Amino acid sequence: MPDLRSGNWLDWRVFEAVSRNNLIYNQCWEDPAVDRQALALTPADRVLVITSAGCNALDYALLGARVLAVDQNPRQNHLLELKRAGIRALDFESFFALFGEGGSGRAREIYTALRPALPEPARGFWDWEIRLFEPERARGQSFYYGGTSGLVALVVQWYVEHVAKVWGVVERILAAETIEDQVGIYTSELRHRLFGANLLRLLGSPSVLALLGVPAPQRRMVHAASGGFAGFIYGCLDHVMSVSLLRQNYFYSVYLNGRYTRDSCPEYLKEANFARLKAGLVDRIETFTGTVTECLARQEEPVTAFVLLDHMDWMVPQPRLLEEEWAGIFAIAAPGARVIFRSGGPDARFLPTSILRRLAFARERAAALHRQDRVGTYGSFHIASFANV
Fold it and tell me: What is the pTM of this model?
């Protein structure tokens, strides 16, 4: 609970209302290609990850690792369970219609086929919310414009087309054959026209960032960085345009098109990988609804890898919560365990000293991988091993 005298009470209430009562993420917002290199997971690993939309939990399972997916928001686990049930019960084309195309006119029929494979809590949720995959009922006619992050994506898309009136430039960028051509079009024709001051103020507001799952502590990190929120936005776009072709960067192209393509999509949506998951790898995933600390307290088997996303930023104002979580991590970590996490800040100094002194950071390696990240929305990326577990 925040200090009600701090002036952040309203921000906290908005964030709590959004994060506890909505599906926020319809895709993961961390690059699993970076995670694969950072962790080098094998079938011998047992990895704990914050669920988010479940895409990356499935990615780790494709490496043979056993995955414990944890999320305080039950709707995020319901989404992962829907994917798991779909993998078990559906053929690839039906599965891709839902999660690749973002929906189908046959969504109800497809759901009927996978429904028996859902655990009861998820079944109760999707019995109503399967409408998110029905084009005639879904916002923007796609699941990927559903959830609170999808709503923000749809609003930004509308702004680009109808206010900034640069949709034609975006289409040219999507058609670019080389990164050099892409950067040239972006620099000369899009960068200076895309965001006005009013839109930047709106995107940086507590309400909009809450819809994106960004809590007040992380928002303050972003606003405090060099250049403020505007500098953060432009820095992200500059990076994204230079790291890969936009049409091949599924993190962004899905919000421009409302769907993935067969060539630009998360690994679990590729037909050969779907078959491997269906053959048994999907069963290497389990879910837990609650905090990381609550989950760790119920574990008896060691964990070899931890993927903490950026969720520790949320706890910066309450270091006691960070210390409690890390006490659980240190207690259950196997010898040689490693951890990765991201932050809106430039470094890991937000962690209490009692935690930092027990971690050995691979800073150069993390910085090199951070430069390859196709998302580009985080201030820093960290890889560490446990020095004194």
Answer: 0.92
